[in-house]
Amino acid sequence: MRFILFLFFCLNLFASTLHLATSANPSRLNPLLATDSSSAEIAGFLFNGLVKYDKNLSAIIGDLATEYYYENNTTLVFKLNPHAKWHDGEKFSAKDVVFTYETLISPKIASPYSADFRFVESVIAVDDLTIRVKYKKPYFKALETWMMGILPWHILKDETDLMNSSFNKNPIGTGAFKLYQLESSKNIILIANDDYFDGRAKIDKIYFHVIADPMTRFLMLKSGALDIDSLEPMQFERQLSKDFFDKFTIYEEISQSYTYLGFNLRRDTFKDPKVRRALSLAIDREELLKILFLNHAKVCTGPFLPKTKAFNEQVKSPLQNIKEAKKLLKEAGYDENNPLTFEIVTSNASALRPYAAEILQHQLKQAGVVVTLRIMEWQAFLNMVVFPHEFDAVLLGWGLASTPDPYPFWHSDNDKVGGFNLPGYKNNKLDKMIEMSQNETDRDKLSGMWKEMFQIIVDDNPYLFLFIPNSITAVNKNIKNVEPSLGGIWHNYTKWEKE
Fold this sequence. Notes:
Blueprint: H1 2-11, E1 17-22, H2 37-46, E2 51-53, E3 60-62, E4 65-72, E5 75-80, H3 94-104, E6 120-127, E7 130-135, H4 153-156, E8 177-182, E9 187-192, E10 205-210, H5 214-223, E11 228-230, H6 233-238, H7 242-247, E12 248-254, E13 257-263, H8 268-271, H9 273-282, H10 285-293, E14 297-299, H11 322-331, E15 341-347, H12 353-365, E16 370-376, H13 378-386, E17 393-399, H14 407-410, H15 428-438, H16 443-460, E18 463-476, E19 479-480, E20 497-498
Parallel strand pairs: 1-10, 15-16, 15-17
Antiparallel strand pairs: 2-3, 4-5, 5-7, 6-7, 8-9, 9-10, 11-18, 12-18, 13-17, 13-18, 14-18, 19-20
């Protein structure tokens, strides 16, 4: 800890260095392949999409595209920014957009994001700064699709194995920051892009400290070695002095994420809907909120987040009912002499999930269920458990976009390597509804379809939806121009200044 603080002191000789923390090494700093939170977070500073959400998540605005328009309901045209450059000085052009699309749909890579492009018929470079996208049919997420980060054609055109390319650790993007240093399990340093098309960031460096241990991150935040970090409710309520609040501003809002207990439906144990229903009834979600979050969270009632058009307010979370849980388990063939036994696996990348797993273990024991726990380092968890589907049940979470898309998570097509349908969930009726919804552009009709899907998924219990945590973020008061909005605090980070 002393060494970390000494290093921090030395680095602070550069007054405009922003110190952040990430819980794990990024696996691939490539927007097409960034499926873990650390990779996605850092890649967000390095790459741009054609468009992005505005600060209140209420409209889609240009990013690498200066403007866009529909020629008809299946043809979308983008005009590209003539001032955008790659970090190596090469000009950004339509050729890069076409290359990114062709790479994403290529069988040479496994990316869950390729599903967003399945309705695209063609992507054509009309000229160096104009792209015409033709869709096979109307698609409700046509614009959101192009929030995907764009890759450089001139660097990767001859790459034969992008999955294992050195580019994934040495990326060249168009973003406000570029990679300066990446040391595994140590330091990740980004420096401001002097030629950024939207104006050079006022912060000169972003220094990511790779710190798996949540307590170490908390101590570094309190000492001032981190400028910004999230706080756990227990820390916020009981472990901060008045001096901390003199130095930091607190921003709290409901997060755009939820935590769930997901079952491996490929295994016989969880194929029985009575078992899944019993486990849901054995859990006391309100107790989870009180113990873990001191009520800085909400019970999650289903797969789409509150305040979106997909949220079904009629669906309520089940209350704990141990008697009914035991009854269902007995009907499924489990009792005191033959208890249901399975393992919950989670990661220590989240400070609270190991504790949540212990609480679930205790609650399920009341219904006669024997649960063992396995807590793993994040990358090992992903590579050895989650993606190869080697689990009974996983305690995990999803961060979701403002416009929900059930296809990647709930359609049976995505029960595959690299897909986000981790439980292996299959429901023919839901598959057909999802397919119908993809081509519906009337948002009111879509809302009704999403709400019906919400009900179907909750009734099937492929996940046990647990909680939606509040996001509590501490920001050092020496960071100026922070403007909280519905989209969070990061929308204008290039305008931030550090005193």
